[in-house]
Amino acid sequence: MRIGSLTFNPPVGLAPLAGINDRSFRLICRELGASIVWTGLISGNALQHGNEKTEDLLRFLPAEHPVCAQVFGAEPGVVAAAAAEAEGHGADLVDINMGCSVPKVLKGRAGSALMADPERGEAIVRASVEAAAVPVLVKLRTGWRDRGAGAVEMARRCEGAGAAAVSVHPRWAGERFRGVADWSVIARVKEAVGIPVIGNGDIRSGADAVRMRAETGCDGVMVGRAALGNPWIFREVGAALAGEPIPPGPTVGERIALAQRHVSLAAADRGARVGVREMRKHLAWYLKGMPMARALREKANQATTEQELLDILEEAAAAATAEPTIEGTR
Ligand SMILES: Cc1cc2nc3c(=O)[nH]c(=O)nc-3n(C[C@H](O)[C@H](O)[C@H](O)COP(=O)(O)O)c2cc1C
Question: Phi then psi for 142, rounded to 5 degrees?
Answer without folding.
Answer: -65, -35
